[in-house]
Specification:
single chain; alpha+beta; 4 helices; 6-stranded mixed barrel; about 45% strand
Length: about 150
């Protein structure tokens, strides 16, 4: 179980933020290794940053620049409804690891977004992940607790 405590005003202003790592899936890394001109070329390190736990998002979203820097190519498109209307977003395979928690979550696809960096985050964790977690948002105490099955 992970527990973070932050100032109540910060929790209200920014929402529940967690440090994460975004990894390229093993299949992407293997393909890059076989196509590399030098066999000893190291895979890109995981991207680290903050993720917003977003109960209003049905799917997990990762900053597109993060995914492209990891060498992950899109595998399709999806139409999503945003506050500004419907838009097409690219889908990418990815893995996400939460700081201080064992294991990685493997995604057949996450949505890519060009709008997350401006918010100071690299990902939105949606209900596709949160539906497998217990999330307690304690605003007066300025903390939240999340535990995964």
């Amino acid at each position: 179980m992970g527990e973070l405590t932050i100032a109540s005003a910060l929790l209200q202003a920014r929402g529940p933020l967690m440090p994460i790592e975004v990894h390229a899936p093993p299949a992407v890394l293997q393909l890059a290794q076989t196509q590399a001109q030098t066999p000893s070329s190291a895979p890109p390190p995981p991207a680290t940053g903050l993720a917003l736990l977003d109960t209003g998002a049905s799917a997990t979203v990762v900053d597109e620049n993060v995914l492209l820097a990891l060498g992950v190519n899109p595998i399709g498109t999806t139409t999503v409804l945003t506050p500004s209307g419907a838009e097409q977003q690219l889908a990418y395979p990815a893995e996400i690891e939460f700081a201080g928690m064992p294991g990685r979550i493997q995604f057949a696809s996450v949505l890519g977004s060009k709008h997350l960096a401006a918010q100071g985050i690299i990902a939105l964790i949606g209900r596709d992940v949160l539906s497998n977690a217990l999330l307690v948002f304690n605003g007066p105490a300025g903390m939240f607790t999340i535990a995964f099955n």
